[in-house]
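Ticket #4471: structure export looks truncated?
Reporter: QA, pipeline team
Priority: medium

Steps to reproduce: submit the single chain below to the structure queue and open the exported record.
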Amino acid sequence: MKRLKIGFAGSMQLNFLGSAAGGRDEIFKRSAEKVSELAGQFGCDCFVYPEFLLNGGDADKARETFERENVDFVLLQLTTFSAGDVVQRLAKVNAALGLWGLPETSMKGSIFVDSLNSFCGLNMYSSIIISYLQDVKHKWFYGNPEDEMFVKRFEITVKALTAVKNFKGSKVALIGGIAPGFDDLYFDERVGQKRLGIQIERNHEFSEIQERAESYTAIEVENHIGGLTSGCINISEASSTSLDIHARYYKAYKDFSDEYGYDALAVSCWPQMAEATGGYSCSIVGQLNQNGLVASCEGDLPGAVSMLLQKYIVDAPTTMMDLSGIDEEDQSVLMWHCGPSPEYFANGAGACLMYSNQPTPDGKENAAGLITDMVFGHQHVTFMRITGEWDRMFLLDGKIAERQKDSPQGSRGWVEALKLNRKDISVRDLMNTILVRGMQHHYPMASGDITEVLMETAAWLGLKPVEAIAYEHYLQIGD
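Actual output as written to the record:
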């Protein structure tokens, strides 16, 4: 993970003293110390610009310094009310921008001697940016540096911008194309690259992986068999031949990504894998995610991109689900997939390597490769997908039900207490929103409630939330 670098500066006007709180110099000093402390606490670096910004010329010097220091986020504190040309010039900085207003130090005496008039300055600066500069994103902050409101907003911004910094420039690849008939997963890589600043390669063939897998010696594969089965409580069904195949392909995908420098892969797990080996890639995909390489199945490259962005926030494995069951009685939905999830999500019963029984077209039983069978542990989970023309974000969260409910074999969990864009949503309204909006049938999942960070990440990346459409009996048309 690349570390975020914060640049901190203060602006003021000479006729505001802030004497009631020890003076503007002392206020800025305490603030700089606290911001530096918080930066370290949240895993980033901080550069403090030592001089107050009094005018546009000072802002130009600070901007040039911040850019030499390769700062990612500039936080400007209005230590007192300040001249308008400061923000006009500083806003040109090649970094994200935050404006910080302070509470008044005194409501008595002279506003110039005893107070700061900081919020008034924050109000003016925000208005200048929005109504005059117009195309500059910024986030406002308010409060003393120890206040919960300031600290929480700062933490969310740091996490979001850290994810953005790591996400931009990342490399992702589709291998073998999209699963046949899954045309809702189609994407235009040119638009994604332009809008998100990532690199997308869609022309790798499955044969590149197959040739690698088949070239390994038995000794080269042996160590990966142990890695493939570690953490799985039951592997008795898995034959040595199946484990050998899966270890070979696991190693092939890892070596492939290392050679090309890919951060995420979209794996076309069928039909090529079945034709080559008689099995599927489920347990391989799960193990790749468990060990740090983001991998989506069925050739879902936008899904892999969404999983990668979530991984940069949680710094933990992610996975991808189908919405496969609906229960209006207890307002829950079943999130299920055939078995590609990492053991990281499993409940106390653990993860089990087993064969997927997928009947042939003539109805005969067919053990079709290894899956990772598990019920997810009771936890908060977040589902996020970049959708539309790479310009929308679908954001759903909820809790994996602690009580046991029936569910088919695979990787799965019933999710309740559902929220869309951090607002409660009924199962029926969720169904309606998904179907009227034309959402893709894959839902990338991360552990934890990261919705606040994702909402801010979306804002910095220019992604608009997919809004709910309340259910009605009549035909409804989405955007």
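Status: closed, not a bug. The export was complete when the record was re-opened. Leaving a note from the reviewer for reference: The longest helix spans residues 240-260.
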